[in-house]
Amino acid sequence: MEKHNTNTGASVWKKIFSGGSGDITKHFIRLSADGQQLSVAACFKKTTQFEPAISLTANTNLDYHLYLAEMNTSNGVVQWAQKLSSTGDAYLWQVAKQDNDLWLYGYFRNQTTIGNVMLNPSSYDVFLARTLTDANVQEAEKLIGPGPDFGYGLDVRDDVVAVTGNTMSTTMTIGSFSLPGTTSSVFVARKGEIVVLPPVAGFTVGNTSGCGPLEVTFTNTSLQNPASFHWEFPGGTPASSTDMSPTVVYQSSGQYTVTLIATNAGGSDTLTQQQVVTILPEPDAAFSAALSGLQLTLLNQSANANAWLWDFGD
Predict the structure, then answer these.
(1) What pLDDT sits at residue 20?
(2) Superfamily the domain 203-280 falls into
(3) Helices and strands: H and E segment counts in the chain
(4) What is the pLDDT, as a whole number, of residue 103?
């Protein structure tokens, strides 16, 4: 780390924050209100040395543990460092400061103890913890599972703690809420409740035109994990459907509009495509004949056709 004078840009001090055999990942730094102290949160494994008399050692060479350290900004000296997690394997994604609290957001595997709270994962699960800036852990909970789940954002505004991320699970539990997911579902949640994003309706059409009876398959491409669907097919059979990707038959000539309503716990979205299917009218064969001597002239007067076959017998 290095401190610079904000007026001149000159270096005030520069030092290696930690060393030893430890493997430290993702430092998160929060400055105290008076600017005199830096709170540094990260995770480490093996043994990490901060100062000659300050070091931390993980339980095994393979597990990552959370830690919090405090540095004096006047000289860059680490004043103390303390593990926030002991047993298990915990990895830190984000840190947010709220008054004298630090919120920690990450994932863990194996049975992990953060502060005095033991968390049991189902795979790679997400945790949310709150610690005072003196490393006194106030609370910790398994926020999301089963996994593997990945978190990207953490924000604290007033009394609301919000997180974002994605899950690779086909089902997802956030707090006490269970949601159907996909192989890559995006979530937004806040502590104490889940915020479900409303769906975005979408579909593609197989055959868009032809003669009746025409069978048309509608492929659902809706986003944001809709839980149910309602289709409207005026002029088609069936005229409506709740299938994800239905097939509809159109008999009569004309142009047809299709509507899809996608719904989940966050709301609904409606998509209407006008004149998306065209059924062509049946051809009407007709001609006139004019005889002049031995020459017969035939005039094609057919309607709604683009190909013709004449048969003159013998």
Answers:
(1) 67
(2) Immunoglobulins (2.60.40.10)
(3) 0, 32
(4) 87
